[in-house]
Amino acid sequence: MAIILDGKKLRDKIFEDLKAKLDNMPVKPTLAVILAGDEPSSRIYVNNKKKCAEKLGINSIVIEYPAHVTEEELLNKIQELNNDKNITAILVQLPLPEHIDKFKIIDAISPGKDVDGLTTYNSGKLFSGEKPYVYPCTPKGILLLLDEYDIKLEGKHAVVIGRSNLVGKPVAQMLLQRNATVTMCHSHTKNLSDIIKTADIIISAVGKNVVGEKNIIKSDCVIVDVGIFRDESGKVRGDVDFEALSKTAAYISPVPGGVGPMTIASLMLNTVELHK
Ligand code: GUN
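A: This is the predicted complex of the input protein with guanine.
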């Protein structure tokens, strides 16, 4: 049976340390979150971020806009937050309504307040091997989780499934910097199962079931499941068939309770880092 990569346990440990640090800060950081539109899951994520921040002693404000918000309104608000010295960190919850150019909006955030590490400045730093102000939350959380379990990355074959800007692309860069050999897979990849067979580490961030009981994996394989969605019966599940693969992998992260809590832990860590 695989060892469970317990994101909740590590999140709690990180929160305990952060809380102690924040208790000693005379001026607390402030996280501003912009939520545009009425995507129900985004609302849940944003509420969760706000609750966590407040529990730790981070000030948190949520600025909400209806789905018909204009780019100009969002750009004006971001400019105002950039110029406000009481605001430490800015997060624009994704996805944005379809008529909004998300790249333009994200790039309006001051790089030193870009808590997601998604601006061209910060992602450029990451991709050129320099230090960004902060690393994107989910990839940072994944690496913290692997480090917690002492999983070595150097020389390992890491197979990343999914090429999003939020997870796939940045986690691949971070793994490269840790000297892993990285294969990027996506919806057009041929023979995914042949590639999976050779993986020392699988990181799947797709949002649908892509790794199942038919997949043959190495007995020392580490599986990190980033996907989260509801199946036809309404059950929350990940990209990986946990039942089947937890019998054959060496390590596996559950959904929920694996990467999700680590994303939020990283967001809180990034907010405090930007405060310095
Ligand atoms: N939507 C889903 N995950 C994320 C995230 O990590 N950051 C932002 N800004 N939006 C998201």
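The mean pLDDT is 97. Residues 91-94, 116, 137-138, 166, 263 surround guanine (CB under 6 Å).
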